[in-house]
Specification:
heterodimer, A: alpha/beta, 11-stranded mixed β-sheet, 8-stranded mixed β-sheet, 12% strand, rod-shaped, B: mainly alpha, two-stranded antiparallel ribbon, 20 helices, globular
Chain lengths: 687, 351
């Protein structure tokens, strides 16, 4: 029975050879018999370079197989192997038992000189009966059913151990194999690299197609030049920098997705050849140049020779990357600064508003430590950098975040089409020379932590500098009265208005939206606080406040009308005087504009807003005038009453006086002849 | 129609410069005891003369263009019509009873629509509306008025327009009087004899008051009759305007005891006092102003046209004559409104 089986097996083996073995040895293996022999004899086996994914020729073994006889031993379980003496002479140091359907290792007798033993393609489940072959150098147990490494402890001279395609779960029992040169454990179920640190002569380790989830425990493998880890589930690699001789590392088809998880590779000085194909990392756009940049010693990547050109490209890209990183770092630094500044501004604002409760104060104090050292820094860096920043404002238009000037009391930021101003100091930025392009792009202006009254004063500037601003946002601006909205009427155009309820109590009013719509009706606003304005809203606004406008425009005495409108005009005039000479072109345009403004809505132009300070100033002025008027009127009235009194007194006296006068006259002319004589006498005297 | 409206509310001659309490005195011989200057001052003629000159100074250039005589005519016309207080400073608005009444009326006219719409507003919002007409209107007054409505607690509560308006009227028009009343009330409450008040029953009243104080929580406020005696006395010598004593008596005669705010509420709800004051219509007619409603309808229609025409304009620029005409219209209307009213004063400033 055995011979038949044996024959058929050998026949099949020949067939197999003829059709070419489909088995793939993943890592370096023994390519040709001659070479192996040579190596074994010289005892300095040098395995040729990389031997990846190529079919292994096993011609020699199949040839040998034909001359072997297996004889059932007297013992029930183990067959005893015997060879003919001529065969022994021919192949004195080798024995090939390939494809013999062996389920156990046979007892090999009288072959103590054997140096090479081949059990490929059998069904062996356990390594045994070979402990007497102490001169064995090469043991091939490829494609068996071995579940545990064992029975090798006496084979001290073993140099090549091939255990590929078995069922091994654990690397163990290799303690005595100190001169092991090649260890092939591919195609097993190993989940961990262990018990190998003593193999200081090991040069090739094949752990492809196992269940490794990571690579570490590689200390002590001081001669390892090739490590094959293809087709595992490796997510990270460590300890590779502890392998002083490692040249080739195959990590294809694993689960590596970041460079950080394999960054120890960058520290290996000997590594010249590496593969990452089939890993998520290889799909990344930065993959190639990152690897090349970090591993200057590399000569091949994914089986391709690295050219000088590629290296140069990689370094260029890496440099760019670096710059980008630095830029983004700078941006985040700026962002941080911005955040701190805003915090700072907010705190100042709160103090100003007397809204700091004791709890908030405590919290703030904690925070304030970091920003408090910050202002100096921020001041120094940004103020000095300021002019160039303005200059580069346009060039950096592509960036989402354009220019940023930070000081500790305020913040100005242009982000796309939005100009954001934090803190009252930021209003001064409107005096800056904004480039036409930037100014034209800004359509949204947002004010935060600024008194509305201060904003009012710069509205004319805003109108000139940012002619396209359509959307105004107010947050923490102390909008408390409806009449404050009057101030916005002087702008050129507003499509959208956003009043954040935070710090703007006016928003809590029921009527504020209608009042805005009514007072700014000439803008035909589209949205208020993000809500679309409907025709009904407009009508409602008119219904609520139309009478006010009507009363204001039609019932106001003309001198008042002139005075109120005049104030608005005067204010503009004052501003014009300030800007005159700087921008004559714009001034003339502004002139037209103000005229149009006055014409546009006299109906409600009388409803204007003067800031507190200005108003108080005016009141002072009025007081002065009143004082004067009071005195003036007092004098006048006193004089008039005096005259009146005199007049009355005269009136009282007059009748008596008249009577007296008449009486005197009558008495004088009573004696007619003497009176005539007297008269004649007077006439003659005159002549 | 502006004239028409002016006609419907021409304050009676006596009320122009006089507080209602001074009315009967006009014909009394007391008048002859005053010097001319004192008389003018008492009738607030001086106030208006001063203000007129002040206004003239304010806008010298503009006014000299259209004539000083014209200016004075207009000024005193607007004083008669009550439009002179629009957008003026608070010190002027409260300067005379007539100004106060004019302001109350202006407030009512301008914001009647808010009440008509049924909106309930907070004290702060009413204050904002007041500030639309008088930018420096003090918050304190509005607060006091709100306190009458809300009874001192929950100052953030919403109030109806009419409640606020009538309370505000009392508070604003009689503010000095109410201050004195508050002092008297406090004196009475603490059992002290209100200074200067000589009441025949004072000793016994005082006696009765004391034990009552012990159980003050049960018997809130002061005794009405005693309170009235004090008030009557106050009205006699008070130089600011006070409500007609007869009406005060009527208010106080209905109850045994009352608190200060109870008194204010009663005052604000008393339509006789409202009539005597003459600035606002009766509560029932508060939302009623047909002439203005008519005007408002026209405005609404026009704003609708306005909006559509504006949208047109946005598409095809270059046609904004519309708004200029608007302005001319407004300017034309003002003199035409005041011109037909005969000017009751002739005043030639000295050179």
């Amino acid at each position: 029975m055995i011979p038949g089986k044996y024959r058929s097996v050998s026949g099949r083996a020949t067939n197999n050879v003829n059709c070419g073995l489909h088995l793939v040895i993943q890592t370096s293996s023994l390519p040709e018999k001659n070479k192996v022999e040579f190596k074994l004899h010289k005892e300095t086996p040098s395995f040729p370079g990389r031997l990846l994914q190529h079919d292994l020729e096993r011609n020699y073994s199949s040839r040998q197989g034909d001359h072997i006889n297996l004889v059932s031993s007297s013992m029930p379980s183990f067959p005893i192997l015997q060879r003919s003496s001529e065969e022994k002479i021919l192949y004195s140091d080798r024995l090939t038992l390939e494809r013999q359907k062996l389920t156990v290792c046979p007892i090999i007798d009288g072959e103590e000189h054997l140096r090479l033993l081949n059990f490929q393609h059998n069904f062996i489940t356990r390594i045994q009966n070979i402990s007497n072959l102490q001169r064995l150098i090469f043991l091939d147990l490829y494609d068996n059913q071995i579940e545990e490494i064992s029975g090798l402890s006496t084979l001290r001279s073993l140099r090549v151990l091939l255990l590929g395609k078995n069922r091994i779960k654990k690397i163990s029992n290799l303690e005595n194999l100190k001169s092991l040169d090649v260890l092939d454990l591919h195609g097993n179920q190993i989940s961990k690299i262990e018990n190998v640190s003593h193999l200081c002569d090991l040069r090739v380790l094949n752990l492809a197609r196992n269940l490794l989830s990571h690579v570490d425990n590689l200390n002590g493998l001081d001669s390892l030049t090739e490590l094959n880890l293809r087709h595992n589930q490796i997510t990270f690699v460590r300890d590779v920098d502890n392998l002083p001789c490692l040249q080739r590392l195959f990590l294809s088809f694993n689960n590596i997705s970041t460079f950080e998880s394999v960054c120890c590779l960058a520290d290996s000085t000997s590594l010249s050849d590496i593969t990452f194909d089939g890993n998520p990392i290889a799909q990344e756009s930065w993959y190639k140049h990152t690897i090349l940049q970090n591993m200057m010693q590399l000569r091949q990547l994914d089986m391709k020779r690295i050219t000088e050109e590629e290296r140069r490209m990689a370094s260029v890209i890496a440099k760019k990357e670096e710059e980008k990183k630095r830029e983004s770092q700078k941006q985040s630094l700026l962002k941080e600064k911005k955040r701190l500044t805003i915090n700072n501004v907010a705190r100042k604002w709160d103090l100003q508003q007397h809204r700091v409760t004791s709890i908030a104060a405590n919290q703030d104090r904690k925070d304030s430590d970091s920003p408090s050292q910050d202002p100096g820094q921020v001041d120094g860096s940004t103020i000095s950098a300021f002019p160039e920043e303005t200059g580069s404002l346009d060039s950096a238009l592509g960036n989402a975040l354009q220019g940023l000037s930070v000081t500790d009391t305020h913040l100005v930021e242009v982000d796309g089409d939005t100009l954001s101003l934090y803190g009252s100091g930021a209003l001064e930025s409107l005096d800056r020379n904004w480039s036409v392009q930037t100014a034209g792009m800004v359509t949204t202006v947002s004010f935060t932590f600024i008194e509305f009254d201060e904003i009012v004063q710069v509205l004319p500037k805003l109108k000139i500098k940012f002619p396209n601003s359509l959307h105004l946002k107010f947050k923490e601006t102390n909008l408390v009265m409806l009449q404050q909205f009057n101030a916005l009427a002087q702008l050129r155009r507003i499509d959208q208005l956003t009043i954040d309820p935070q710090g703007n109590p006016v928003v809590s009013f029921t009527l504020w939206k209608y009042y805005v719509l009514f007072r700014l009706s000439h803008f035909s606003m589209q949205k208020i606080n993000g809500t679309e304005v409907t025709q009904n809203d407009m009508i409602m606004a008119e219904r609520l406040f139309g009478i006010l406008a009507h009363v204001a425009s039609s019932e106001l005495p003309q001198y008042r009308l002139i005075s109120i409108l005049g104030d608005a005009r005067k204010k503009q005039f004052r501003y014009l005087l300030e800007t005159k000479g700087k921008k004559p072109g714009i001034v003339s345009e502004e002139n037209n504009d103000s005229k149009r403004l006055v014409g546009e809505n006299t109906n409600r132009a009388t409803l204007n807003y003067t800031t507190r300070d200005f108003y108080n100033e005016k009141l002072e002025e009025i007081k002065e005038k009143k004082k004067f008027c009071k005195m003036y009127i007092e004098d006048l009235v006193k004089e008039a009453t005096e005259i009146n009194m005199k007049n009355e007194a005269l009136q009282k006296l007059w009748p008596q006086m008249f009577i007296e006068l008449v009486r005197d006259a009558v008495i004088e002319i009573r004696n007619k002849s003497s009176y005539m004589k007297l008269c004649l006498q007077q006439i003659t005297d005159q002549k | 129609m502006a004239t028409e409206r002016a006609g419907t509310w021409l304050p009676e001659a006596g009320k122009l410069e006089l507080g209602s309490c001074c009315g009967p005195r006009m014909l009394s011989p007391e008048r002859l005891a005053l010097t001319d200057y004192e008389y003018l001052a008492q009738r607030h003629v001086l106030t208006y003369m001063e203000d007129a000159v002040c206004q003239l100074l304010e806008n010298k250039e503009d006014i000299s263009q259209y004539g000083i005589a014209r200016f004075f005519t207009e000024y005193f016309n607007s004083v008669c019509q009550g439009t002179h207080v629009l957008f003026r400073e608070f010190s002027f608005i409260q300067a005379t009873p007539h100004n106060r009444a004019s302001f109350l009326r202006a407030f009512w006219r301008c914001f009647r629509t808010v009440g008509k719409n049924g909106d309930l507003l907070t004290m702060k919002e009413y204050h904002c509306l007041l500030q639309l007409l008088c930018p420096d209107f003090p918050l304190e007054l509005t607060q006091k008025a709100a306190r009458i409505v809300l009874m001192d607690d929950a100052m953030d509560c919403l109030m109806s327009f009419s409640d606020f308006l009538f309370a505000f009227q009392i508070q604003f028009y009689y503010s000095e009087f109410l201050e004195s009343v508050a002092a008297i009330y406090q004196d009475l409450l603490s059992g002290r004899n209100p200074n200067t008040v000589i009441v025949p029953t004072s000793s016994s009243g005082q006696h009765r008051q004391r034990p009552a104080l012990g159980e003050a929580s049960m018997l809130e406020g002061v005794e009405a009759s005693l309170f009235y005696q004090c008030l009557e006395n106050l009205c006699d010598r008070h130089k600011y305007s006070c409500p007609p004593p007869a009406l005060v008596k009527e208010v106080l005669s209905n109850v045994q005891r009352l608190t200060f705010y109870g008194f204010l509420v009663a005052l604000s709800k008393h339509h006789g006092i409202n009539q005597a004051l003459g600035a606002l219509p009766d509560k029932g007619d508060l939302m009623h102003d047909p002439a203005m409603d008519e005007e408002l309808e026209r405005l609404v229609v026009r704003s609708r046209l306005h909006r559509t025409s504006r949208q047109h304009r946005a598409q095809e620029p270059g046609t904004f004559g519309f708004h200029r005409r608007d302005k001319l219209e407004a300017l034309e209307r003002v003199p035409s409104a005041s011109a037909p009213t005969p000017s009751p004063y002739r005043w030639e400033p000295r050179e």
